[in-house]
Amino acid sequence: MTTYKGLRGLTIQTVAGDPSNLVDGMIWYNSSAKKIKGSKTGAGSWATGGALNTARAYIATVGLQTAALAILGGPHPKSNTESYDGSSWTEITDPNTARQLHSGGGTQTAAIIFAGSPPDTAITEKWDGSSWTEVGDLNTARSNGAGCGTATAALMAGGDVVAVEEFNGTAWAEQNNIPTATRATTMNGIQTSATFAGGFSTALEAEAYEYDGTNWTTAASFNSAREALASFGKTGTTVGVFGGDEAPAAVGKTEQFDGTSWTEVADLATARGSLGGTGTNTLGIAVGKLPVGTQTEEWTVASAAVTFTSS
Asked: Is the dihedral of CA 94, 97, 102, 105 positive or negative?
């Protein structure tokens, strides 16, 4: 007979209750309940994080929940850049050109920002953990588009144009256009697996498109059409969108995409649009708002204990 030890090379631990630090995929015998139990991904929720030092919207936010950057912002272009350690924000070196934008990618120590306004610009800057350096410009100046990726493999799409560009660490090259010119949108993932979602074209959009590094395909629409939203996620099939503006007001709705469909999961404590967002679909962060605010919220999906049942 096949045993768990034979399959996994491990014995099942006996615990008088449930372990305190659950990790997805754990299996144990709960001696108090006299049941075999395991852990799986639970429900996510938002909690208050440390406040920004400078209230703003239109922020490029990159990195992880415990190691993020909030870069530039507006309205009225700001140069402020702050670093987050999971509890508080600290002012650090500013980029060379003040602007308001959403477009960036990378990590806390190796980031990239591009595009922005006013006026619409093609300026691109890279961060090495201590200073900003201007590098090759986008081919198409724009604002209100969306970006993602890394400092050496970034992706820019949308704005009031259909143009899509990829960055190779030195220069931008034009790629296949996105199907619809959409502004006030969001995008997350990597250069070869990204999801572009929401925004405004001729009306508020719930449309999502997936990019595989070459082509765009239409994905399932999410449940709430909106613009000026934000997102988290590290590939196009594990992404979440949150916040944004539904006519006539901002919302706090959060939806997660599993590669097939969107599921509404939890609301931000503060409904808001024109915010920044970054992180993974289990450890994300929401930053800023319009009208300008300093609010930070942290998204966490914890593992939950379940009981195995026979069928």
From this structure: negative
